[in-house]
Amino acid sequence: MSEPDRRLLTPEEYLAAQHSPEFVELKRRFRGFAFPMTVAFLVWYLLFVLLSTYAHGFMSTEVVGNVNVGLVFGLLQFVSTFVITHLYVRHANRRTDPIADEMRTRLEEHEYARRGDTGATEGASRG
């Protein structure tokens, strides 16, 4: 089997895709996850930094043996990074990747060129 001829996308096709309802929804879903999660992580990180700087007594409180609160909070920074990564992958798989995959297929098939500059598309499933 041979691969079909592929032609480059035109700037108009990219603009049509960018102005489509699918892309607007894709951005909304991404931002709805990314911005709140970024704020939450930065607050958590700054809390750790501020406690480390100004609450020496609290952070040096021993929890078990030589393990203190500061060490536990420091390790929880790594744990929270992995948790956020897991949450994002799950969010992307369920909420953004289906729309992005559909848009990529439409771009590859040059559907946005056939629709013209009206931005009218059939729409992605909004699950």
Number of continuous helical runs? 5
Low-confidence stretches: 117-127
Percent helix: over 70%
How are strands sequenced across the largest beta sheet?
1-2
Features:
127 residues; mainly alpha; two-stranded antiparallel ribbon; 5 helices; 4% strand; disordered C terminus
Describe the structure.
By secondary structure, the chain is mainly α. It has one domain. Helix content is 72%, strand content 4%. The chain has five helices and two strands; from the N terminus they run H-H-H-E-E-H-H. The chain has a two-stranded antiparallel sheet. Helix 2 runs antiparallel to helix 4.
Quick overview of this protein structure:
This protein is mainly alpha-helical. It contains five helices and two strands, in the order H-H-H-E-E-H-H.
Strand and helix map with partners:
Elements lengths: L10 H8 L2 H34 L1 H4 L2 E3 L2 E2 H40 L2 H5 L12
Antiparallel strand pairs: 1-2
Helix pairs in contact: 2-4
